[in-house]
Amino acid sequence: MGERNYQFNLGSWDITADDFDDAKRYLLDDLAEYVDDSYLARDEEPDTTLLGAAKAFRAALPEPKTKKRLALWAALGDAITAAEKRLADRPKGSVTIALTQEQHSTVLAALRRWQHHIDGTAADHEGLDEIATCAGDHDALTSEQIDDLCGHINDADPVEG
Questions:
Q1: I need a labelling partner for 93 at 20 to 30 A (CA). Which of 44, 67, 74, 115 fits?
Q2: How many other C-beta atoms lie within 10 A of the C-beta of residue 134?
Q3: Can you tell me the distance from the alpha carbon of 9 to that of 105, in angstroms, rounded to the nearest whole number?
């Protein structure tokens, strides 16, 4: 008897595996990765082609009669619901940037310093040093590194909303 091959076709996306559970996992992983990419996209509107194809695929599935197919149907429904929610909650007008731990700590210290300024209270410089070094886990950024960080933040493109 030959090997059984499972294939899911969602428009231009084909998912093929020798095992049903692998095919299901590939399908759900691909959908999650696609939604993550669309969520983080800098486009005005994320590309929802695969999400639409997944919805059409699920709607076209015959009534599940086995536990495996019922599990696929339910998992795909949950993934579609989560994807729709994630895309609906996509931040508008936001900026996503990657920071090192040192940069992250410096940004937090700067925000605390700014908070003291607008509240009209004196900043606790020792406390700011603790924040900027993550309680001594790393060195604080140098003036040159802070200037580079400012450039990095300034160069980030906002997500249009």
A1: 115
A2: 17
A3: 46
The token duo for 105 is 């700590």
pLDDT less than 70: residues of the chain: 1-4, 10-13, 38-47, 90-95, 157-161
Q: What is the pLDDT of residues 90-125, one digit of tens each?
A: 666 666 778 888 888 899 888 888 888 888 888 777
Q: Which residues contact 7 (CB under 8 A, 6 or more apart)?
A: 14, 15, 16, 23
Question: Which tokens belong to 132?
Answer: 């900027």
Contacts of 36 (CB under 8 A, 6+ apart): none
pTM of the complete model:
0.47
- Rounded CA gap, 123 and 115, in Å? 9
Domain spans in the chain, listed from the N-terminal domain onward: 6-88, 101-155
Query: What are the φ/ψ torsions at residue 66 (nearest 5 degrees)?
Result: -115, 160
Name residues whose C-beta falls within 8 Å of residue 32's C-beta, 6 or more positions apart in sequence: 79, 83
